[in-house]
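INFO worker-7 received task bundle
INFO bundle size: 2
INFO processing item 0
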Amino acid sequence: MDLGIKDKKAIVCAASKGLGRACAMALAKNGVDLVINSRTASELEATAADIRAATGRAVTAVACDITTPEGRAQVLAACPNPDILVNNAGGPPRGDFREWNEADWMKAVNGNMVTPIMLIKAVVDGMVARKFGRIVNITSSSVKSPIAELGMSNGARAGLTGFVGGLARQVARHNVTINGLLPGPFLTDRLRSGRMDAAKKAGVPVDEFIAEHFKNSPTGRPGNPFEFGEACAFLCAASSGFIVGQNLLLDGGAFNSALG
């Protein structure tokens, strides 16, 4: 299927691994040139090389902290007029809200709400002027079904979702769409590392532990990052201009609702 985005330019944040990398790869396979970002230069350069080899597209790696004004300026200098923006950032830590101080909350809100908004602010008017733009915010399934121990993530990402709900309707008439992708469990390095201690205690390999853990879920497995990347590319398609302000939940059916 031709998504109609060949030769478009995209910024993909936190793209050295996991779901960000999957989104970057999927876009490049559809002919998009990329500026990708993460904090760790070695991992980011390796990912850029892999994407170039697999797709033949131009990939510029910008190693920086996207949650800072300086980091955002570096990325935007490398791609000042993107056609596509994929916002992504690592989630805040789990825990009891009684353990978190104001600085913890400010960091979570900055990384998972303010930073995406600042990037949207920097690029959306250019998209409007060019009559094409696709913005995808990678948030979390916890936006739809809050997870008690992820209170900071619930709050910050829900705040971003609420803001986007209003803005998306203002820019849609200019062929600029803003939507959310809400991941549930995907088989990433982060999921593996999060299950490592439990797997050791159980005395089984971590992948075996994960497979056992998810066998009773509706799909019987965690998601494959490839699937997430393909969903991202679909939302960025030229033909997806009528999908506005939506939040696509990719959780293998774990959230039980007749209306999604």
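INFO item 0 finished
INFO processing item 1
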Amino acid sequence: MAMEYPLGAEKAIEIRDLKKSFDAKDYVLNGIDLAIPKGKITVIIGFSGTGKSVLLKHILGLLKPTSGEIRVLGRNLSEMDVAELTEFRQHYGMLFQYAALFDDMSALENVLFPLREHRRSMPKAEMRRIAMERLKQSGLDEKHYHKLPSELSGGMRKRVGLARALALDPDLMIYDEPTTGLDPVLTEMVDNLIVSTHNLRQGTTSIVVSHDLYAAFRIGDYIAMLNAGKVLLTGTPQDFLNSDIELVKKFVSKGVHKA
């Protein structure tokens, strides 16, 4: 079902009849049609095994489609070679499920890493200024900047991971199951952090891949639900509440009661 967009809204990502098979028999993605509007928070939800992670890898250009097309910021990812994809990925910021920080680097050094890799001509003082600014924006107290990940709490590590993801000033922010394994207090903190980060950076497109419908209702401008390798429904949280699709109603009920 097509997503209703605000009049004149730009699309950050357009996916057309995307199919992916790893064995030429079974399709993990079986005709995905999805458009993600620019400057909004879109949450991709679905039961385990519905293709969320595989779709995310296509958006990142880590997998190539068996057929179909995926355009990110107007570029067809399938037409890029490895070098072009590597360069293009500077448009992405990625907060991994468990932050994925470098264990032997301090919080500040973790945020400096992408700047050192991709902004080599930038003065070191400017790199440091940007890294500290991103950590501040992510809500980490300055007294923790020189601590190793093992010395930080789970919530602090998420903040460092977010600051690192923001280091290159990306057009697209992607959150992969950002609240998995967190207690309710930390879950709400991360949800609020996603929204505040998005609101702080006008024009940035945020994509959250999650199994948590409650979070989707709290933070999403739009929601896309996958099922059996297809998009079952896209729309606003209200569209999901009003849906007559039986599977959507079952999935939604938990989120409604929790809200």
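INFO item 1 finished
INFO post-check item 1: The chain has nine helices and ten strands.
INFO post-check item 1: Residues 99 and 158 are 6 Å apart (CA to CA).
INFO worker-7 idle
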